[in-house]
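Hi U.,

Before I forget, here's the chain from the pilot set. I'm dumping it here mostly so it's searchable later in email.
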Amino acid sequence: MSNININLQRIAYLLVILSLTTYIIIIGKSLIVPIAFSALFSFLLLPICRKIETRAPYRPGAIILSMIAALLPILTAIGVFSYQLTTVLQDMPSITGQLKKGISHIFSLAERYLDLDSTSLEEWLRTNLTSMLDAPLQLLGDSLTSSTAVLAGLVLTLLFTFFALLYRTSFKNFALTQVPKTVREEATHILEQVQHVAQEYLYGLLLVIVILGCLNSLGLWLIGISFPLFWGFLGAFLAIIPYIGTTLGGIFPFLYALATTSTFWQPAAVVLLYSTVQALEGNIITPKVVGSSVSINPLAAILSLFAGGLIWGVSGLILALPLVAILKVLMDHITPLQPFSELLGSDLYRKSDIFFEKYDKEEYRFINYFSDRRRRNL
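Structure:
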């Protein structure tokens, strides 16, 4: 293999760049996460801002009006949600005690009808169950301890969103001037695609939250669970975290129903409700509403969620899918990375032959990037 020294040097450069980038992303979390959220929010507010600017051409004022229009319903929902959260947290000690009694009763029934050893069940209950039950119910309360950090992040996000909308034309022109004129039209198309993907994902996600919140709340109200709107929309908001959030959103009302109801059919009905809603969300609601904006296969989505959660925690879980979708758009326009983009696609198992049919050429082999014979295509 010729030019092996040059190849190894370029590989070393790439590894150094990737390592430094990862390190900066991790240590710069407090600054980078608000910037990432502000970029998504600016995409969300951009259509509203543009409509206001057509009637009031003063851009700063139009941005402030668009942010107020978006924040008013959110702040109202947060106020109602916080009020009900306070009520639930006040009853948490009694809820936890009732829940332990209910689980103990279930163990007694298991001992009676399944001929299980009561001593081992009680020992397990005493050593393990208490901590297991306290953790999920107190998760809501524990999240309030980081309110200062959350508030600081929210203020930074709003501030960055304002400036991102204010300077959007300058940022776009700066980005376009960094590429040759021969590919500037394609670069403009890439920026438009990124904006479209982000907007479609965010608007679709908001609609999915409303649909799930209504379905969950209606079902919980019919079952007879207290605070149906609170539990219903809590599960809907947690659905922002793909795969994990919907399941977690069903655990809280199930435990609450187990602790506060006197029948067994109500907790079972809660499980059935959330299982049904989750199936509808995964197979019908999200695919129809969000569409193909985030066309990522489940394996790539799960890996991105793990990576996002490992690096940025809950914020990384929320940002993982839209960021990977944007990355996929960029990879679609970089020749050596197009096969990798196909690996992220949602219909990967139907397009297994495409790698031999389309990408079995020199320009699509990523290793050629480290060779002098590589083709510079964008």
